[in-house]
């Protein structure tokens, strides 16, 4: 008794366009949204659009950790810090060596490393006076 086996018929490969056309509208929206996010995110990161990188001397900030530090109006009740100094072109070693020592009112400091082969910056932060 011998069994004959036949190879399963292979379905023709679908192109990306036909795959996309077969999706429901909600799924199409999600795919497009994901594609846009993947394309835009690197540019946003590269340009340094995060809040601490935009802070200047005299501006106020709120937040207690690196992840939630953001620029706010100095009249905002959430304002905790005032930027006393911004030291550009600094390394992490500069930060560790007390770069804000020239500002005796410094209560905290923030270091962000540079983007792609660049040095970072240090923010010397003092408490907002009420």
UniProtKB/TrEMBL annotation:
Keywords: Membrane, Transmembrane, Transmembrane helix. The keyword Transmembrane helix applies. It comes from the Bacteria. The chain crosses the membrane at residues 31-49. This is Uncharacterized protein.
